[in-house]
Design goal:
This protein is mostly helical and about 450 residues long. The chain contains 17 helices and no strands. The protein has helices at about 5-35, 40, 45-65, 70-90, 95-120, 125-155, 160-180, 190-195, 200-220, 225-230, 240-260, 265-280, 295-305, 310-320, 325-350, 360-385, 430-435.
């Protein structure tokens, strides 16, 4: 089977994962009514999904790496299919939480393995496009799969939407199981390598900022339907979720171009996070003008999905061979943030906060992330300035090359020849590094 066709199968699996992850936000009122729980309690099913996704990605990918990528993909899809069928059949709140947790584990196992397989199945010059196709499948799930699932639910009930997602998973499972060739990709980073990346200050800053962004963005998305109902008296959220997804696809496509043209992914990440905070803060005030609510929605979707691109670029550019572990850690932070955000949003609603005002604390978290980023990079730059342009001690010949692939970080981060994250440049002095660290 050709590499392009095999990657298309992986993209179909990602499409199913994206539909499952984001369709639930529009189904919460119906699920709550059916299972006789509040929307805030029903929203904890999203917390269960995203939390298990965050934990499964590093844990199972490392533990099951010896199975081979193809076997891991098939296993993940089997778990995903069974879990969604279980959600469609459940008649209790406990069953809902359990099956959503299992679906999240399947999705968390599938997504990094699919990215690894996509890169291994095509020639080096086509790896970027293959990776984009697989990751694009998830964002396409928000544009096509989510509205389709919600339309099916509107006509036949929320369980029908889960059966649709189950069917997508079955098709992907059949294709991957029957037609995907053996995959020889790089071994998954160990748990020690993943969490050891946090010992590197710049990795820790990137991961922490990613966490704050997803607490705000994905956490609020979970309760988008009740928010829209209170803000603009909207009955069906389907067209608005579609607009949010369109913004996400546009942001995903444009972010890479912006990174390449500016060469300043750190600055771009801060700008996107600040724009997210502004869009969320604007949302509660848009109900007085018909159609105005679409503006912050499309902006939110665009900057929310675009944010991951400069963040991953920073980690891969600085970390060399250790970039896979850092990116895996960043991916876990993404879904852990979504889990924390949806849990906090549910608690706020359960304690009487009007859904109309829920975007405001989310905006506050996003803006806090901006402040943290600016403070942290300035502190790092000052530390580098104190160390001097050539580090604190003598350095052997050739030490100017990047040694991050060995798990050790060079003292002279300001003069790192491979620094592409906008926080240093070849031959730059420590003072210049400080200036570049101040967006």
């Amino acid at each position: 089977m050709g590499g392009t066709r095999a990657v298309a199968l992986l993209a179909l699996g990602s499409f199913a994962m994206g539909t499952d992850a984001y369709a639930m936000a529009g189904l919460l009122p119906d699920i709550g009514a059916d299972l006789r729980v509040s929307v805030s309690l029903a929203g904890q099913s999203v917390t269960a999904f995203t939390l298990c996704y965050a934990l499964a990605a590093p844990l199972f990918s490392a533990v099951l790496a010896r199975w081979g990528t193809r076997t891991v993909l098939v296993t993940a899809l089997v778990v995903f299919v069974l879990a969604n069928a279980g959600t469609a059949l459940t008649g209790s709140y406990a069953g809902l939480l359990g099956t959503r947790a299992l679906a999240g584990a399947g999705a968390g196992l599938f997504t990094p393995a699919a990215a690894t397989a996509a890169v291994a199945l095509v020639p080096p010059e086509r790896r970027g496009r293959a990776l984009g196709l697989v990751l694009g499948g998830m964002s396409a799930g928000t544009v096509l799969g989510v509205p389709l699932g919600l339309l099916v639910a509107a006509g036949s009930g929320w369980r029908s939407a889960l059966w649709l997602i189950t069917g997508l998973g079955v098709v992907a499972l059949a294709g991957v199981g029957a037609a995907l060739p053996p995959v020889r990709g790089a071994a998954a980073p160990s748990l020690r390598a993943r969490f050891g990346a946090l010992a590197r200050p710049r990795v820790a800053v990137v991961v922490a900022v990613t966490f704050t962004q997803t607490v705000a963005s994905l956490g609020l998305y979970t309760y988008l339907e009740p928010v829209l109902h209170r803000v603009a008296d909207i009955g069906s959220a389907v067209p608005y979720l579609w607009v949010w997804g369109i913004g996400g696809v546009c942001g995903s496509l444009l972010a890479g171009t912006l990174v390449d043209r500016t060469g300043r992914p750190a600055l771009l990440a801060v700008a996107l996070l600040g724009t997210l905070g502004a869009a969320l803060a604007l949302l509660p005030w848009t109900g007085t003008v018909p159609g105005l609510v679409l503006l912050p929605l499309i902006l939110w979707g665009a900057v929310g999905w675009a944010f991951v691109v400069p963040q991953q670029h920073r980690l891969l550019a600085r970390e060399g061979e250790g970039g896979a572990a850092a990116v895996g850690l960043n991916s876990s932070a993404t879904y852990l943030g979504g889990a924390v955000g949806s849990a906090l949003g549910g608690l706020a609603l359960a304690h009487g906060l009007d859904a109309r005002w829920l975007p405001l604390p989310a905006a506050g978290v996003a803006l806090a992330g901006v402040l943290f980023h600016l403070t942290a990079v300035r502190a790092l730059a000052k530390r580098e300035a104190a160390a001097g342009p050539r580090g604190a001690g003598p350095e052997p010949a050739g030490a100017g090359t990047d040694r991050r692939g060995t798990g050790t970080e060079p003292c002279d981060a300001a003069t790192d020849q491979r620094d592409k994250d906008g926080t240093g440049a070849a031959g730059a002095t420590a003072a210049e590094a400080l200036e570049r660290n101040t967006p």
